[in-house]
Design a protein that fits this description.
By secondary structure, the chain is of the alpha+beta class. It has nine helices and 16 strands. The strands form four sheets. Strands 1-10-11-12-4 form a five-stranded antiparallel sheet. The chain has a four-stranded antiparallel sheet with strand order 5-6-8-7. Strands 13-14-16-15 form a four-stranded antiparallel sheet, covered by helices on one side.
Length: 334
Amino acid sequence: MPIVPNEKAEAGIVTQSINCNRSVVGDLKIRDSNPCVWFHNSEFMSILDLLEKELSSTLSRRLLHSIYVHPFSGFFEDCMLRKKPFFITERTHLSRIFDTWAKLRMLTGRGMASVIEWPVRFHVDQPVHAGVEVGDVIRIVERLTGGSWRATWKDDGGRNLMIHLEPIEIQVEKETSKQTITGLDVDLGIDWIRGLPQVNSSPIIFLTTESINEFIRLLNEVPTPEAPEKDRFPDADSTLEKLLIQIIGKTMKSQLPLILDWDVDHSAIMQHLIDRGFIRSYESSNNIIAYESIMPRSFVCGPIVTAWEASTGKMATVKMNTIGLSKHTITFLN
């Protein structure tokens, strides 16, 4: 928790709150949302930048689609249940619901969205990434209006994102809340400062595991580079998975716990992945790690291999295996 003057703390600028909980099966959630994970903003942007560079492709639209089809559900939807007071217009009522939703959305590390002209023009202050912000805004507008919309946007690369929506003739399916009131509150060392989550004064963003899986699925549509000469992951499903392991491990390296002697104790890296929602549980023996996760394998293998290499000083060769839908193993062959 950063040290701040008392008057700022008293004014509510700095707050500590336990908004996270763990489901019965071990998934991380925010206020009983659907399963999610979190990244440092710097990690998230580095992963996207490196992927765009290696794949020679702009990925904003694919990220937008992933966020759009798999948004957060649960606490975001409470404000939509409000009935319209008889003394205000329908437009004003929906605009107020949007404003409440926008404030709740900040708990997940997004920028502050506001209405310029309902329901066609919006502004996002300090956006994390255009694909994330636009996907969220399209989804909520469709929920509130019952119509379909397409988006264009202008991002100045920093503090401002302008979004313009146009109606299109596509039927929108009605949604029901996926919220489930289960699990236990967990304190992961996350502080919500001015409504935005931080870890050790570093801003973070939450993403649903479903949206990440969808994004990786869409990456398979992009031509991938040639396989590396030295194949360190012979059991990987594709060259894309090998590339993802390397990129994710590289970008997360600075935030991973240091393992002094891997053979003596490497529980710190595994607990780190549990705290971030990447895995549900694990067992480890000899050179084999068995874990349960609903994330793509690359997001777990990447940081584990990076921590192993930092601890041992060797370059890892790894065998990966999947048993069923969510059970996996990682075996170090050297």
